[in-house]
Amino acid sequence: MDSFELQNALNDFENRMLDGSDNTIARTALRRLLFGLAGSSMSGSLGDAVEILASQHNASPVASTVVLRALAVDGLVQDNLENNLARNIVSLVERGLPGFTDFLGMGKKKQTFEKLDLLRGAMAWVNTQLAPFRVSYTTLTSMIEAKKKILGALSHGRLLEFGGAYHLSEVKDAVISVYSGLEDVSKVSSTLAADLGACERAIDDARRLATQYPSFVTVEYLEPWLQCASERLHEFTHSLRGRFTAVVAQDWIGEDLPKRYPLMEEGRELRILVPFRSDGRGAAMNVRVSVASESTQVLFLNEEIALGNVSPGKFSVALDVSIIDACHSASVMLGIEWGEVGTSERQDALFEVRVLAQKSGINWEAYTYADPYSTGPAEGEDFVGRQEQVQTLVARMVRSPMEPSYITGQKRVGKTSLATAAADQAGLRDPKGKLSWHYILWGQIAHEDPRVSLRQLGEQIEEFIVGELPGNAAVPRGSYDGSLSPLMKLSAAAKASDPDRRFVIIVDEFDEMPQDLYLQGNLADTVFGNIRALTTTSNICLLLVGGENMPFVMDRQGQRLNKFSRVNLTYFNRATEWDDYIRLVCEPSAGFLEWHPDAIAEVYDLTNGNPYFSKIICSKVFARALRERDIDITGEEVREAVNLEISRLDDNLFAHLWQDGIHAPMEEREPIVLKRKRVLAALARCFRSDVPATIANIYERRSASDINEAELTRVLADFVSREVLVEENGSYRTVLPIFQLWLVDVGLTRLAADALSQDLAADAQRAEDAARVLSEELVELTKNWPTYRGKHIGPEEVRAWLNQRPGNHEQRALFTILKATRFLSEADVLQRIRSANLTVLGLVEAPVRKKLTERRNDIVITYVDGEGKSGQKYASLYAEENLISTTAILPPSSFQEAYQRHIEQHGVPKVIVVVDDMVGTGQSLAANMKKFHDKNLASLSAGGSLLFVFALLATDEGQKYILQALSELEYSSIDFRAGEIISAADNLFAGDKGIFATPDERDRAKTVATDIGATIYRNAPLGYGDQALSIVFPSSVPNNSLPLLHSRGKGSGPQWQPLFERLVN
C-alpha cells in the first residue's frame, strides 16, 4: 500500500471502532491495515500479520499504536498460543514505541503476560491525558484558562510518540491556532471582525482533521472541544450585540454613478467600480452582493459576489461587464446583505445603480500627438494662478521709479513662468503702453571665461534696448569687457530719445553664474556695482530669477543689492490657491478630459501642489486616457497612471533636491552631493521597510560607514531647511510625496548606484536594492486580472502582500509566482462548463421547450465537496448553461430524500451530474465519490441513471487517479470529464528551474513558498499533494495551489495574510 492507501485503511479501522462495529468487522479492518503496514498481501490471520511486523528489523510505530488501540477493546485481539500473539505484540510495541513502553514501566516486568497487561491499560492513560478536551467549558474565559492544561497534555513527549499515527502534532498545531484566535477575539480590539474571521477559519481548519483523519483523537476529543469552542465563541460575540453595528450605504449621490464609462464602444469589456461605505463601529460580516439587470445592451457577468468581511470605511464592488450594443446608459440592481458581530440576523439593502456613458465621437487621432501639459515655461494665457505674486511684481514694474526684484525657490515651481507672466501683465498695464521686456537665460551666455559671459550679457541687453528705440535714435554703443557700466549711458540715451519708454530685463538662472562674478573680488565687485547703478535708473528694471542658491548669491553682495525685493515661490497652497490649482489641472485638457474633484485632489496629494510635478502627473493621466480610451478621470485613474509611470520617471526630475542649495566652491560640492545621496538612500530603506524614518533607523540603514551620526544629523537638518524633508515627532518624510514614491520604487536603486560606487563591500546591498519589484511591474501584472470575489486586486494590494517578506529577493520570488498564476474569469468558467454540455456530448437529447422559460428536469445535479463550497456554486452555473431546473440541484446532505421526491415528480433522471471545480491529486474527489456511492448505491442501482462526474480543471495525475477509483466502485454506469487537463509541467517548481530563470532562483522561491506554507499547512506547504499549482478561480482558490495565495498563517506570531483569501463557510 502507498501512504494514501494506508491512511484510508487506518481511517477505515478507526471508523469501525468509532461506530461500534462488530468485533469481526473491526478485526477484518485491523488485519487489512496491519498487513498493509507489513508490506504483505492480506493472507492469514491477525496473529500472522503481527508476527510479520514483529520480525521486521524496523518496528512500525504506527502498527504499535494501532495494536495498543485494539488491545483496549475486549475480544478484538484474541490470544493464540500457536502463533505466540502475546509475545509478538510485546516485541512489536517495545521496539516500535520504546520511550512509551519505558514510561509505562515495561522494563520492570519480566513475564510476557505482565507486559501485555500493562499494554492493555495504555489507552486508559492516553484517555486520561486527553480528558481536558472533554470538559464542558461554560465561558470563553474558562476555555482560554484551560489552555495551559490542554497544550501541556499535547506536549507530553510520550503522548506525542504514541499519537504519531493519529497526527497528534497536527492536532496540537490546530489547537494552538484556535487558542490564538480565541485570545484575539477576547481582547475586543479594533480588528475584531478580522480576529473573528481568523478564529472561525482556525476552527474550520481544525475540523477538517476529523474528516481527513477520523480517529478517537479527532472524533472523540478534538471535535467536542471544537464544538465547545465554536459555541463559546458565538456566545461571546452575541454578548457584543449592538456594540458593533454596521450599515452599508452608497458612497455617491443620487442614482447615477459619478464616473462615466465608455458604453458606446460595442464589444468592449469593462470593469465598473461601484463605491460604497460601511458605516458604524463594527465590520459588515460576510457581505454578499447579488447583481440583477434587465439590460440587453450591457451584459453583467457577476451574478453573485461574496466580499467576505468589510471593515468600516469605503469599499467598492467591481462589476465585470461586456458591451453587447452601444448605449447611453445601463441600469443594474445591487442587493447587498451582511451580518453584524454578535447576531445571526442578516441585514440587507437594495441599490439601484445607473451607469452613464462617456461622450462619443471623439477624434482620438487628433489628440495622439497633443502635449497639453507641457512642462516648459508657461506664457500668456497658459500661465495659471499665482495672482498675488503676479500683482506684486507687476506693481513694482509699472510704478515710477521701477523697482527691481528677484524670484527664488526650488527648481520646478514655476519661477520662470511667473517672471514672464508678470512682465506680460506689466506691458499690458503700463500707463503709457511703452513697457517692453526681454528674457535672458544664463545658459545662453555661459562661457568658461566669466568675462566673456559678462560681455555677452551686456551686449544682449544693449541689443534689446536699441531694438526697441526709434530707428533714428542716436544711442552710444558700449564695450562690456569687465563691466556693464556702458548700460548707464545707454539708459540715459534711451530716455532722451523716448522719455516714456521703459525696459524690463529678466535674467533667469542668475545663480548659475560663475563664482568669480559674485564672490568677493574686483570683477564681482564691479559687476554688482554696475547692477546697483542700473537699479537707480528710471527706465530699466531688473528681474533676476534663480533657484536655491539665489539667496546665497544675493547675500554675498548684500549692500549693493539692498534695493532688490525678494519673491519666494513655493507650491500651490490648498487653502488660498485651490481655484487656481483646479485651473492648472483642468484647463489644458478642457473639452477632452473630464476631471472629477477626487482626481484633482489626488494629483494635489501626490505633489503637495508642486506645479511642475502636477503637470507631469496630468500628462501621464492624459496618456493613459488615450491608451485606454477612457476620458472620465477619477482618483482611481490618477493612481493607476502614477503606479505605472513612477518607475519610469528620470533621476533628473528630482536631482535638484540633492544637488541644489550647496554654498561651496565647485570642487567641494561633489562630496556633499554624495553624502546627500547616501542619506536619501538610507531614508528610502526606512520607507521600504515600513519603519519610522528616525535618525536612529536611518543611521542603521546607511550603507557608507564614513557617514557618522553627526554628519547624518547635519544633512537631515539641511534637507529640512531647504524644505525637501519635513520632521514630525522625530520622524522624517519628504515634502514632495511623489518623490517619496519614486525613492521607494526605483530611486533607491539609482541613488545607490552612484552613492555606493566607492563602497566595495556594498555589492550585496546593491543587489538587494536592485531586486525591488517596481510599481510599473505591479501595474502591468494586475491590469488584466479578472475580479476575485467582486474585488479588483491591484498594485497596492499586491505590494502589501509582498511586503510581508522582508527581503527584495524574496519579494521578487513571490512576484515571479504571481506572474505565473493562472486566473479563470467568470467567462473562462462558463466556457469550460459549455464544453461539458450533455447534449453536445451525446449523453442526452436536446430539450423540446414550448416556452423560453422552461427548464428540463430529466437531469439531476449535485456536488460532493460540502455545503457552501465551490461545487455548489458551479452546480448552479452548470444548471443554467444546460437549461436544467434549479429544483433539480440536490444537496448532498439530503440527497436520498431529495432524489426520491424528484423521481416521484419527474421520473428517473437520465443523468446525475456531480460538479467539482478542481481535481488535483484526485484523492479528495475519489474519497467523496466513494462516500456518495456507498450511501446512495441502492438508489443509483434502482434507477440506472448515468453518474456523470465533471470538473472544471483536472491535473493529468488527478484524472488518472479518479478514473481508477471510479472503476473500482460497484456501480458501473459512471463517466468522468474535465473542462481542461493540466500537465505536470504546471507545477511551479517542476524540472530543473520550473518557471524561474535559473535553478538558484527556483530553489530560493521554493524555500520561501515552503517557509510560508508551513505556517499554514505544515504537512502540505506547497499545496495538497505537493502539486505547487498557482490557479485562481473567480471566488476561490483550489487547495492544490500554493497555500500562501489563499490562506492565513496559523500560530501566535504575525500571521501570513493571503492575497486571494478563501471564505470561511
Automatic annotation (TrEMBL):
Xref: InterPro entries: P-loop_NTPase, PRTase-CE
Positions in coiled-coil regions: 757-784
Keywords: Coiled coil
Family annotation (Pfam families): PRTase-CE (PF24390)
Keyword Coiled coil: yes
SUPFAM superfamilies noted in UniProt: P-loop containing nucleoside triphosphate hydrolases
Domain PRTase-CE: 798-1062
PANTHER family in the record: ATPASE DOMAIN-CONTAINING PROTEIN, DNA-BINDING PROTEIN-RELATED
Protein name: PRTase-CE domain-containing protein
